[in-house]
Amino acid sequence: MNNCAGRSEKGATRREFMKMIGAGTLACLAGRTSADENRPSIVIDPTPRFALSPYLYMQFMEPLGTTDGSVAAAWDSWRDRWRPDVVDVTKELAPTLMRWGGCFSSYYRWKEGVGPRTARKPMLNLLWGGVETNQVGTHEFVDFCGQVGAEPLLAVNFESDGRKQWQRSPQGDVRCAGPEEAAEWVRYCNAADSPLRREHGRTEPYHVRLWQIGNETSYDRNGFDCETAARRTADFAKAMRKEDSTIQLIGWGDSGWARRMMEIAGEHLQYLALHHMFNPDGNAPDSPLRGTEYRKDPARTWEHLMNAARVHEARIRQMREQAGGYDIPLAMTECHFALPGRNRGEVLSTWAAGVANARLLNVHERHGDRLRIATLADFCGTRWQVNAIMIPTPGGRSYMMPVALVMALYRHHTGGQSVRVTKSPEALDVTASRSNDRLFLHVVNTSRDRSVTSRLVADGMSIRSGKVFQLAADPEFEVMETQAREIVPVQKDLPPDGLWTFPPASVSVVDLDIQPV
């Protein structure tokens, strides 16, 4: 793969490939299939199965210091505001939930990030490097959520998750915080009469409903053990709920901790958290997903990226089993590809990675009966390819990476209830949902070079009309600042016969208006 207009294995240039799709030359692609009556079908049982959470499209903001200019680059320090281009593109992405925290939470003292900016205390970013000015804190983050239409989620400092290396800075500054500080944060955000918040010029509460206790607590053997973490989770929950009994709490349950966490602290929790930052190839030295190896053999790269859905689903099944016996929703508050490369896996800028991420979203939908919060990106930054949004600096217009393109497409076209896909062609990865008399199909063509024509059928229903919103491109195409808007959804009407041809390497949403027969 490369960004130049080279030739694919079929001999067509990238420009020709895009023109073929954009011009709607689906008839010639459909010529590879048999006659209409023998074409395969996508069959949907429209009976609602379970509610799908809108939080399956969350994003995650963490100040990443010198590693990636995430928050600092998104903030316009000249005008004391969020960069308008970041706000605008985030509105396109339309996340339902935004999380503030991550490993940063383990040494974050929230009071340093509130009040007059001229009086805010800078801090060392103990993991990611550099100095955080705290110009962005609680007010600014919640304000950003309000501007883009997302609900805020705050991750509290859970006594540094027991990690001694984060309990004090090299200068001896205490970075560990207990239940009292977490409870004070809840009061600051949610109490109608918070004196400190009012002193800072905000009379109305922020109404932060979701809070996470513990971040990757089980990932460090030098931190809390499960017993300690569970007991302290209960202590934090009790203190926080004294300030607001209506908040919902997420406890850490990964690495086999789920059952013991629930036994000790389960009565206080509404969600159990897990994370999944993964490489579908593990550490295989011959992986085409390492560095720029993906450009050498596009077909092999595609195969390895498509395998990610199997690996990801196995991880979610594992967590479900570990939480067996407890009917508690799961919250995957961090999740993305973790591939080696100078910018966390440059292959993630390719459209092939966009298709792979669409398959991961389908996995989330299939497990939507238990998985209620999930993401696939680190939201924004200046260079990590795992970001949903890239921020050019010092200026320029922010843009969506392939993972964000598919998340936005699904987010704008999805139903509230999961329904079953009873039949679909082998090459198509299909999930479906429903809201009243509208049926939504999320369709991923996992074939890199072949289209698939299929008839759309809803059991016991007639399709009055339908629209298709489609993302399709050469899998080798790489999204970057100079060609950030080349891949956009194309909207077309579904023909009366219900037949549709899904181009190779495409991600589509089919929106059907249905009625009982």
How many distinct helices?
13
Total number of beta strands? 24
Main pleated sheet: 9 strands, mixed
**CATH level 1 name of the largest domain:** Alpha Beta
What sort of overall outline do the alpha carbons produce when their principal axes are compared? globular
Q: What is the CATH fold-level name of the largest domain? A: TIM Barrel
Distance between the termini: 49 Å
Rg for CA atoms: 24 Å
Spatial order of the strands forming the largest sheet: 22-21-24-19-18-17-1-20-23
Strand content: 15-25%
Total domain count? 2
Q: Output the structural class.
A: alpha/beta
What does it look like?
By secondary structure, this protein is of the alpha/beta class. The protein has 13 helices and 24 strands. The chain has helices at 14-22, 26-30, 70-74, 84-93, 138-148, 179-190, 195-199, 226-243, 258-265, 298-306, 308-322, 351-366, 402-412, and strands at residues 41-51, 59-61, 75-76, 81-82, 97-100, 123-124, 131-132, 151-156, 210-213, 248-252, 271-278, 330-337, 371-374, 380-381, 389-390, 399-400, 417-423, 428-435, 438-445, 452-458, 461-472, 490-493, 499-502, 506-516. It has a nine-stranded mixed beta sheet. An eight-stranded parallel beta sheet has the order 2-5-8-9-10-11-12-13. α11 (308-322) packs parallel to α12 (351-366) and α12 crosses α13 (402-412). The termini are far apart. The model is unreliable at 1-35 (pLDDT under 50).
